[in-house]
Structure formats: C-alpha cells, structure tokens
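anyone else get weird line breaks when pasting these?? whatever heres mine. first is seq + tokens for prot A
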Amino acid sequence: MSTPNTHTPDSTTRKEASAKRKTKVLIVDDEPAIREVLEMILQEWGYDVRLAADGAEAKQLVESYDPEIVISDVVMPQLSGLDLLRCLKAGNPSRPVILVTAHASIDLAVESMKQGAQDFITKPMDYPKLRAILKAAESDIQTRQTSRKLTSQLERGSGFGEFVGTSAPMREVYDLIVSLSSTDASVLITGESGTGKELAARTIHRLSKRADGPFIPVNSSAIPETLIESEVFGHEKGAFTGAVVTRPGCFELANGGTLFLDEIGEMPLPLQPKLLRVLEDGKVRRLGGKQEFEFDVRVLAATNQEPRQAIQEGRLREDLYYRLTVFTVHLPPMRDRKEDIPLLAQHFIGEFNKKHGTNVEALREDALEMLMAYSWPGNVREFRNVMERALILSKGEWIETFHLPPYLRNPGAESSSKIVLPLGITAAEAERELILKTLEKTGHNKAEAARQLGLDVKTIRNKLKTYKIED
C-alpha cells in the first residue's frame, strides 16, 4: 500500500531552504518585544538569528557567534548603535551593519553611512524594505567572497607570465609559447589590436636562451615612411639631410637578442624586399655606409590583419611572409575568451587600486554582466581602459553599472552598424563621419579602425591631420 505524498510545495521549499547554509544575523535592541518580533520574522525568512540586549552583549556575541550581518538599534544604554558600529568596523570592516532608530534624522543617517553602515531603517519597521536591505547585504557578502577567491587565484597564478586567463584558447597559446621558447625559429604573432601581441613576443623572448639579450620592438605603423628605413637599417653621419650622427639600426641594437617587428603588414612595400634580403643574409648595411655588419638576432613579427588577405591585396610580400612564418601564434579576441573576464577584472582592480591608492573590492554582479555581454572590439586594451575609468569614478568598495561608459550601459545605441548621414552631405564629409564614428566605436584604436575600414593606419593618421584632430 503506497503512502500518500503529504509534501506541499511550501514545505518542499522550506526544506530546500533549510538544506542551504543559513546567513547568520545578530539583532541588537534593548526592547525585548522588538528583538522577539525581528527574530521570528528573520527566522521565517530563512536566517540563523542570535539576540543581544545591548552593545556590550553584542560585542561578546560577535566574538563567539561571528555573525555575517548585524542589525542594531541606534539608541541604547551604555554603548550606542553608532559606538557599536565603530567597534564592529574596527574588527571586520566588511561586515554589513544595518542601523535602526525611531528618531530618524538626516544628520544621523549621514553620520551612520559615513561610519560604514550598510543601510539605515526607521521604526515602525518597513519589513519589505528590511528584507530588501538584507538581500543586498547578502549579495555584497557573496560578491566579496567571489572577489577574494579570484584574488587568491591570481596570487597562486592564473595565467602565464604577465598573461591573465585560464580559458581553453589561452591555455593553447601558453603551451605554444613554451614550445617556441626553446627554439630560435621565426614566429608570426597574429590577432586583433589589443589582444597582447607584444606581450606574447616579450614572453617568448624572456623564456628563451636570449633572455639576457636586448628586446627591440619596432612598430611599422607608428614610424613615418620617410624614417622607417633608417630606423630598421641605421644610417651613417651625413647619409641624408638631418643625419648629423651615425645611428645603428634595430638589427644592430637587437644583436644577441630579439627583434620584434610589430604591424608588419603596415611596412612600406619598397622596404619589404630589403628586409627580406637582410633576413636571408644575416648582414645589414647602414644607409650611406659601405660596411656590412653581421648580426645574431631572432625575429618575431606581428600583424592585426589576416596575412593571406594582405598578400592578395598586395600589401605584404609573400616571400617575406614565409620567411617570417616558421610558426604562427594566434591570440584570441576577448569575445572568444569571455570566461576570463571575471579574473581579468579582478586583476585590473588590484593593479589600479595600487596605482590610484583606492580600495575598490569588486564589480557589482550587474556591472560584471554588462562586461560579459559586450563584444570588446578593442580587446584587452579597451577592457583595461574601461576598468581604470570605472575604478577612478568609484568612490566606495564597488564598481556599479553607472561607473561604466555609456556605450556599455546602452549597447543598442552604440553597437548599431548603421551610420545615419544627412541629405546633401558631400563624399568627403561622409568619409569623415565614417572614420570618426569607427574610431569612436573602437575606443580610438587607429589600427583596429583601419582594419575595420580596410585602410592603412597611415591613411587614418593623415585623415585626422586633415581634419585638424590631434593624433
């Protein structure tokens, strides 16, 4: 004979709630009736409750019971609620304390919040408001615990060298970097702007047998076309107007170490065959010079473009590409490693707390959700800038949604792929609007804007000069 199921939905819910660990709450009030009513209500809400009749008893219970949340009356004999608040904050600054009073005043509320109270509520008690305050306090406790777990994870090492992240795409990158560090082969590092290509190159160098030698980075897109040949090969005194002293090129400077050629796809075409010849011969001659210098250099190159597309479009020589690409390391964009965002956020909070002398604990859950929902076209570079901005704007322990940039809070307005142009606009004005809007969308990352628009970085720079906008 089967036994009828006597469990109601409410009783099942209560059993599930009791199975979870209950949040410990200490109630401090000199009125017995208030204590008992609060105890009954909070136990019904699923809290583990202890009672104290005054501040002195509360201090003893804090030692033995270690409550996670304290609800205290303000006006009590001997030790007032504000005095108790100061004592509790001295012992555990992060413990939420909620103050209650029958004599509400703005001055008292301001003073209690200044002393570190979680919130302030008046008698007669607004129980829905109290429950909301308790839920907010529990959320803070949970966020703080998560933050400390992430910080502990970072301290133990959650990445590789200066890289932060444990996602599968990044672990593949770390494994490849380790393998490449034991060889002297050329490597092409690919990835969108802001993914950390130079950091990858520096890590390969630091782990290699050349670690004690120089690491010389050269950004092909940042050097004017008229100067880049001199930068790469060096020049003798008097080789050209303005060459008042002899200057060694980057191959000589990197001798015994590593030369990093960043944005190789932006290197002027006339220079590419000369670079190829130097790489194949292992010798370099300065501009205006006759003597050739031998060098011992490992070359790492990087590009934010699709290399084969750059070859098809005639911007990168195929023979140079193959000379530089014995191995390829591809760095994933942020949108493909979103599981690393909480760890990266905590890493930057720690970094910028030290830099700016702040004490931000963590991101609020809804702020983290905003970061997780965004596509991050500027990748880690953009993410880092957003985190620094938010931390500076935050005046307390938490980064809130309103500390994030407007384009993150209202993604629909910013992520639209349409640019509306007024009637009668000229082609030049339309081009200007397109370039500036794309730069705005990419966080003023010129290399990424150039990639999205199918232009050279130099073209973007020249256009900005034409528009009289600071580069």
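and prot B, same format (seq, then tokens)
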Amino acid sequence: MKSMKSVVPHLSFCVFLLCGNCLAAPPSPEALDACMRGWADQNLFSGTVLAAQDGQVLLHNAYGMADYNAPIANTCDTRFRIGSLTKGFTALAVLQLEEQGRLRTSDRLATVMPDYPHADTITLDMLLNHRSGIVDHTTLPDFQTVRRTSPCALARTIETFQSLPLDFTPGTQFKYSNSNYILLGHIIESVTRKPYADVIQRQILEPLGMHGTGFEYYRRPIPNMALDHTLENGSIRRAQDRVMQNAHASGALYSTAHDLYLWDRAFRTGRLVKEKMRQKILSCDAEYRYGWATTEMFDRKILAHSGETEGFCSTIIRFVDDDACLIVLSNLEGCSMGRIIQSLSALLFDRPYQLPKKAPTGPQASADYGAYVGRYQIKPGFFIDVTTQDGQLYRQATGQSRLQLHPESKDTFFVTEADARITFEYGGEGQVARLVLHQGNRDFPGDRL
C-alpha cells in the first residue's frame, strides 16, 4: 500500500557510477527514446515520457500497456493518476486566492477553521510547506483497513487526525504529511464555497487547456485512463485498488504528460500567478515550498515532486535556470523512477548514465544458493530476508515486494527492478555471516541473524 508520501525520494539515492561502456549521448529525440526503450523492453517501465528544453519538446512518447490484459497500448493521450503531484495544483490555487485577496498564507488556521485544535499556532504557510506537525492520516491503522478502499467524506478524513497530538511544535520542523493538504482542500472549499475539483478546473485547467486532467471521482469512468499495474520478479499484474477520491487535494488528480508540460510552461511565464507569487517558490531555499521540493541535480537547481500510489508513479522535474523539464508518468508500480529520471537528465546535460542490467536468460538455479538463506538486519526494524524457491534466489526487504536476485559474480547478485546489488560475505568458519546492500553509491551491511 502506498500513502503518496513521495516528494523526491528516488533522486537522493541515485548516484550513478562512471564506466567505460556508459558514454553520454547528445540530447536528441533518438537518444532519449533509446534510453527509455532500454527500460521498457525489459518490462521495467510502462507509461509516457516528455522531455523539453528551451521551450522545445525533445521527446514525447508512450511505452508499454495501459491494460496488459486487454491488451491496450499506452499512447501520448493516456491519462495517469499523478498522486502527490496534485499538491502543486493545490498550492497554486491557494496562491491564486491570496492574489485575489481572499486569504493570506500568513493567516492562522483559526481564521478559516476556528474550532480546529492548535488552530492559533498553525498558519497556512505551515500547511503548504509541511511544517505544521499534524500527523499524516495515511499512517493511521484505519487508512489501511477502511479508507484506502472505501469512499470517505473529506470531513470524516479530517476527523481521523484532528484530535491527535502534534508530532512537533508548529513551524519548528519539516515533516511531510498528507493531512496538511487535506486541510488545504477544505480551506479552498470554505473560502470559495465551491468543490475543490471545480476550483482547480476553473482557475487552472480551463485557462491552460488541460483537457486531459481532472479529479478522479469514485466509480466514475475516465476515458483513456491507464489501469494500475505492479512489477514483481519480472512479472506484471494488476495492483491493489484504491479510492483516489479520498486523497482529495493531496492526491486525487489524473493527467497526461502533455497537460503537465502546459502547466510547466504556464509556471515559467507567470500566466497563472503574478511574479511576486512565483518568487515565493523560486526565491526560497527551504527543502519544500508550495507544492515543490527544492534540491539539485548535476549542480543545477531543480523544483521537483514525485507521486506514488497503488499501480502508478509519477515525477516532474523543473530545471529552474536551464528552462528544461522532465515529466514521467507510469502505470507500473515498482518501476525505477529515480534511475529513469537520472538517465534522462544525464542525456539532457551531457553526463554519463547507465541503462538497467539485463537478467540472465539461461538457467540460474544453483544448489549453492541455500548457503545464503537467512534474515539479515540492516538496521533496527529493517531486515532483508533471503530465500530460495524452485532453485532461484530471492530477497525481500521490510515493507517491500519480493524480488529475484540474479548472479553477477561469485557471491554478488543484482535485481533488475532497482539500482541495487547484494554481496554475501563469509565469517571465520566459512559460513555466510552477513550481506552488503550496494545502492545509490552507498554500502549498507547487515549481519545474519
């Protein structure tokens, strides 16, 4: 189960190694497409990709299937759940209301929700920037058992967390919480006296001609919508269902790569908000401001956000000073979104990159694999279980899917679904004593229990 907590988690762990056979290619459509086919041809990506630089679209292609059972191929018009990318639209709507004089981001929550606990100490800015201390409602037990798969009114969602203690004193820390944007959705509706979806439609989608974007209502069919899938051990199947309407202003929108590019261009040109509001995002060095994470890639400042929900993942990257944009939408949960974004970015800026390793096609079964079986502790509460089945070797980390380990060399294995390798090491008695997880140019040792 996913809780749409993603900001840019993939990128911070994706540092690519230089190697002799990993030469950078120029940012041509052919090179970008070849990069993506390196992922799609191994069933490691399904979705649409748009890459643009200096106002020119370099690549806008679709890969994989919208429905693997039918089968129906993805096209550039296919619509995808974008999860937490919704937060950027919500934040923009709030800034528009501030421009209209209908609220101020410096207002206390008490001005619009006077009965909310701690309303006198929490500002709208704190909600927008995840500095309120309010508990993330998607971490509560009833979310997994009830609210993930059954419709839940916005007011009821707020009731699940409003009386809980704060995680910290408002304004003192950053902690990502979907509850912040649930409250912002309620505030937008209270101030405008219109449904959130109608406000987004009228203030953002219609002015920009974003006809492939909208709010996902429960059991309301959406034309050209991709179905949710998940990748596990090289096989693709349907993912768990989820009622996205419940995510509301924190994650209920769907879109296309083309529409999100229209949104990117509007942000750069100041079409939807005046320069003063645009600078509230651009001029701040905080790690998260108004629906965007601020970080760097290849020594370039970027605004970015990712979204993950059952069967879908999405990322948009804005290179602030280079007028470049990458949009990747996928209906394949488990795809290596961070590595894909890194590879495409490397092509844009003439840097080295790596394509995914191919799993061996011949027999891999080995009687020696039994020596690796066991539980390994990476840190308290986080384990990697190594098992065998039908002569193959598998690993399953805490809270993650089981993935097959493919032999790279003696005692070293890799997975095709992630930028990760595992090396097994021996103790004094000649028995496997620990493993080392190699990921993101870092090593994480774990003793065998």
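btw re prot B: The domain at 367-448 is CATH 2.40.128.50 (Lipocalin). The chain has two domains: 11-348, 367-448.
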